[in-house]
Specification:
The structure holds 2 protein chains of 2 kinds.
Chain A (H helix, E strand, L loop, with lengths): L2 H7 L3 H22 L3 H17 L8 H22 L8 H6 L12 H12 L3 H11 L5 H8 L3 H20 L7
Helix pairs in contact in A: 1-2, 2-3, 2-4, 3-4, 6-9, 7-9, 8-9
Chain B lengths: L7 H4 L7 H11 L3 H18 L9 H11 L12 H28 L3 H10 E5 L1 E2 L6 E7 L5 E6 L5 E7 L2 E7 L1 E3 L2 E6 L5 E8 L2 E7 L3
Antiparallel strand pairs in B: 1-3, 2-10, 3-4, 4-8, 5-6, 5-9, 7-8, 9-10
Classes of the chains: A mainly alpha, B alpha+beta.
């Protein structure tokens, strides 16, 4: 088994420290997309990683799965905080329509992957792209998206689910997995 | 088991399900490997979506906090008035042997306060570690009877020694002993009461001990 994954699964400090060393910019970028305050975002990363590391449920999987699991945990922690404190900054639908991926001058987490992602998003049917964009980049719940798009909840769930599965197929091939 | 997750498997990694639905996903994937795999694949897509986010760089303070949270902190909560005596006792035990050290400790403490002597003796215990492997190490552990601190001393460590502790919650890496010439030491204030300690050199067990409280 991968040394990092093994250490993390055994809840040795080294496992968490190595995961942090590899992916901390990604973790903080995910948190700051949801929580604007830098200190609060760092608290969120700290709390999310510790919660996972101390969980009685032993992690099993490979390194990429651990990375994805930790990123999801940080995002969930940040969204929980955001919703608890009612600081949800609703974004206008037209923003999602015009810009599936926010284009910024500042560096992004992974420029190469961003290019692949933009291409894959552009190939999605518009209604799926909008629903997914509102969910991920707009930080909205499926209920909020349904209300905003004036569509049934089941329809929104289907659009997002299909968009995710298409992206999975598109992004799975060239480039492979990265650390 | 309930039926498979369906679309919630893709929605869960996005964090957009309500609490009940999210909890249902977590309970389900703990028992269903097919859905666990589907959720893991969706989590990988979520990582790709994160690639386009503006890059944020963590402050050094975050790494420090995280490290402090996962590694038991030495000395931080050791009662200030007890610390010098515990340390003196530790070195006495390490270098002079149990009979000698008891005498030295008593003499040293007699010049202080008799009440303090009683307090020190009632607060810590000690144990010699059982040597293991072909190249074992001689080591002792002093520890507070209330489990609030342990002090590990190894004689002629012969390389970097790592201390692995077992608590009721599982194993945890206490970190490396610090070399001080002929000896290596580690003072730890654990969050959970330590049941046993194993010293490792290059990944191999070289000594172990069980702590009785």
């Amino acid at each position: 088994m991968d040394e990092l994954v093994e250490a993390f699964a055994a809840r040795r400090p080294l496992g968490l420290e190595q995961a942090y060393a590899l992916w901390s910019p990604l973790f903080l970028s995910v948190a700051r997309h949801i929580i604007a305050d830098r200190a609060a975002a760092e608290d969120c990363v700290h709390d999310a990683l510790l919660r996972v590391w101390r969980s009685p449920n032993r992690f099993s999987g490979n390194r990429e799965m651990l990375k994805a699991y930790l990123v999801a945990s940080v995002r969930n922690e940040a969204l929980t905080l955001l919703r608890r404190e009612s600081r949800h900054d609703a974004r206008a639908l037209k923003v999602a329509r015009l810009a599936p991926v926010t284009t910024v001058e500042a560096p992004v987490v992974d420029p190469v992957e961003t290019q692949r992602l933009q291409g894959a998003l552009a190939r999605l049917p518009e209604e799926q792209r909008i629903a997914l964009t509102l969910a991920y980049y707009g930080n909205k719940t499926h209920v909020e998206i349904a209300k905003e798009l004036d569509a049934p909840l089941g329809t929104i769930k289907s659009r997002i689910s299909m968009a995710m599965r298409k992206l999975q197929t598109e992004l799975a091939s060239p480039g492979g997995s990265r650390s | 088991m309930t039926e498979h997750l369906g679309e919630d498997a893709e929605l869960y990694p996005l964090g957009i399900l309500d609490d009940d639905a999210a909890r249902n996903v977590e309970l389900h994937i703990a028992q269903c490997s097919a859905c666990a795999q589907r959720v893991a694949q969706a989590q990988a897509v979520a990582v790709s979506l994160a690639a386009a986010l503006p890059l944020a760089t963590p402050s050094p303070a975050l790494e420090r906090r995280l490290r402090e949270s996962v590694r038991p902190q030495p000395t931080a909560k050791l009662h200030a008035s007890l610390f010098p005596f515990a340390l003196a006792a530790a070195f006495a035990l390490a270098f002079l042997g149990l009979g000698w050290q008891a005498l030295v400790l008593r003499e040293r403490l007699q010049s202080e306060d008799v009440a303090l002597v009683t307090m020190v003796h009632s607060h810590f215990n000690h144990v010699s570690m059982n040597p293991q492997s072909a190249s074992p190490v001689a080591a002792k552990i002093l520890y507070a009877r209330d489990g609030s601190w342990i002090y590990i001393i190894a004689d002629k460590p012969g390389g970097t020694l790592h201390a692995i502790a077992r608590t009721a919650l599982g194993s945890t890496d206490l970190g490396a002993l610090m070399s001080t010439g002929e000896t290596a030491t580690l003072l730890v204030h654990p969050r959970e009461r330590i049941v046993s300690v194993t010293l490792q050199r290059a990944g191999a067990d070289v000594a172990s001990a069980t702590l009785a409280y």
